[in-house]
Amino acid sequence: xxxxxxxxxxxxxxxxxxxxxxxxxxxxxxxxxxxxxxxxxxxxxxxxxxxxxxxxxxxxxxxxxxxxxxxxxxxxxxxxxxxxxxxxxxxxxxxxxxxxxxxxxxxxxxxxxxxxxxxxxxxxxxxxxxxxxxxxxxxxxxxxxxxxxxxxxxxxxxxxxxxxxxxxxxxxxxxxxxxxxxxxxxxxxxxxxxxxxxxxxxxxxxxxxxxxxxxxxx
Length: 218
Prior knowledge:
- Strands 3-2-1-4-5-6 form a 6-stranded parallel β-sheet, with helices on one face.
- It contains 10 helices and 6 strands.
- By secondary structure, the protein is of the alpha/beta class.
């Protein structure tokens, strides 16, 4: 693929950045932890931002238990209702109006994405490319997902903006060489700050013109 020298691209995590699902996922993984205990304190926080494959292979050594956890997760996910976080949809619409390339980089698998498509059918139309947990081989904090997205958008990683809310996610963004915007809400700002260029509470706080100017100056 031919990469443009100054093509700016925007790369988004999904949960806790675009859709409001983190509280529900905390409940879901607390339920799973009670049913299939790992003994790890604050397990939902520890696994946040990583792929299901990574979670299963890392924390459940028994193959029978792994399958039970996977099936239980999908069962609980089927009852989830997805909504945009405040100002997220408006920001995506603005980027599309400006014809600025965007990619979704999520650890979610295809089954969850299918349910999300039913809940928010227009969401995928805001993105030029989508990276799911089924595509990548290495879970966040590895930058593989963001590097794949940048390549498919014909942009250099250093010309990309990564939007993340998890520790694993901001580390992945920083490691990729991108400009990282941390979304506060699910993780303490103090934990995110060392890996971010800037922190915001929601997209309305972000000055898009200023952000593009900063990228052009890099």
